Amino acid sequence: MGNNPHVTLAQVAKAYGPLISLHLGTQLVIVGSSPAAATAILRTHDRELSGRKVPFALFLREPKLNRVPLAWTFKCNEEWKSFRTLMKSELFTSKKIDNQSIIREKKVHEMVEYLASKEGETVEIREVA
């Protein structure tokens, strides 16, 4: 897919539509490239498509990571799905995320100031409404 896989996937989506399934090696990957496809993936089929591939090599170094239900797991089992649903309904609600916007804005300003100091030039942030 080259150095810009997002560009390649956008071109593929123009030819084949907004919902694409690809095999990258032995891994099946579902790509949604439109708001409707993203809604279908994240809302309609959330529990079926919520699994992810964890590199086996990671477990050779840290086998205990498989016990962390949200971070790394070989399988998307019912315990993991229940924990993920709880996180989504209690921690990642729109209200809770909106309440942390000040923290995010502060971190963005810190990052921009850091980058500006490294580049030696002024970087401006425009407020987006």
UniProtKB/TrEMBL annotation:
Database matches in InterPro entries: Cyt_P450, Cyt_P450_sf
Domain of life where this protein originates: Eukaryota
SUPFAM superfamilies, A to Z: Cytochrome P450
PANTHER family listed in its UniProt record: CYTOCHROME P450 (PTHR24299:SF58), CYTOCHROME P450 FAMILY 1 (PTHR24299)
Protein name per Swiss-Prot or TrEMBL: Cytochrome P450
Organism from which the protein derives: Xanthoceras sorbifolium
